[in-house]
Amino acid sequence: MSSHLTDSVLYGHLWTTPELHELFDDTGRTRSWLAILVALAHAQADLGLVPADAAEAIERHARVERLDLAEVGAGTRASGHSTLGLIRCLRAVLPEAAREWVYYGATVQDLTDTWFGLTMRAVADIVDRDLARCHAASVELARRHRDTVMCGRTHGQPGLPITFGFKAAVWAAELARHRERLAQLRPRVEIVQLGGALGTMEFWGEQALPLLDRFAAQLDLGAPELPWLTARDRIAEFVMLLALVTGTLAKIGNEIFELQRPEIGEVAEPFTEGTVGSITMPHKRNPELSEHLDTLARIVRSDAGVAVEGLVALHERDGRGWKAEWLVLPEASQLTGAALGFAARLLEGLQVDAARMRANLETHGGSLLSEPLMAALAKRIGKHSAHEVIYAAAMAARADGTDLADRLLADGLLDATEIAEASDPGRALGAATAFVDRVVGP
Q1: Which one is catalytic: 3, 155, 315, 384?
Q2: 8 and 2 in contact (C-beta within 8 Å)?
Q3: Mean of the pLDDT values across residues 216-244?
Q4: Vertex 214, ends 238 and 61: CA angle to 5°?
């Protein structure tokens, strides 16, 4: 029985992916924790802090399959301690000679924060892979529709002509920047934690700093400059990055959500046969993919807010923010993975109606080309004066339902050649196609 949607047999596919769920469920988390304890034992054995045969025994027996997780949970509740239930159950399956050497001198955050380092590395691999997929799909849309003219919109209203390739290039560039951000933050977050009681590593004496480096090497993670028990900026930065990623995906989803409304009808989501939009209205085909991207992003942004709260930590250990991270980091990671999967499907299968884009553009007549018409008139009377004249003509055309270009011609403000040149949407694109080329490359 599950109470969180990421664990739901019915709805889990909307909130996580199998590989991410496996990373964060009880079995996956415990498997990682045991691997950390094995790495610690070997690092300590290398420095003579733990007998080598004890480290070998810990490696042989520290397997999640050997433990009863229900018993571990019962021990956790009985002790009121985050890891003591696990350690007691692990000691019970270890040979007697190794029982005193497991978890030797370490504390809860040495285990759980190192797990954060391992999981952020795994999540970063997944996020980068799926960001690359979304980026490639956006680049392909930009390249394919480099010259597909459509109505650009500002404040939800018609503006100037652009191309759909220009719109997709904006998406591609933003996704590429997220990959850059991810690469830049990884060395900061993919690190171990080993500090002992207060972060001074007092228990291990003169071997403290060598042990920190050996422990990091065992896990192929970085060694921090000092333990980070109450320095939670790394977790906050990582979850904030996930919020940025899902925010971009939500923006793309919202754009597609809007453009596929039948009143606009310029794009459409890929459709899977048998998908039902409504149990009461059989004709419905709902924008499930684009809509859900916004839903997922809202929750990740909330998780990021909780992670940022963790920066305000007290003294040398503060469980309030740190334990909240146990919830928000796994949740934000899984929601982001789900969002990237949906976004990739959406972008790779997006249907673009170039004819409808052109028809919508032409519906607005000359009014959509008020800026190039103003620029033509500005050569005669100056830009600001031309704006006033074109504004008055545009408002009058809107009021009586006439075409702006026809009115300007009738009033003798511009001649037919000037109006023809300024009224060609293909000549009003500015550097739109050049910008596409800068994003997609040759």
Answers
A1: 155
A2: yes
A3: 97
A4: 90
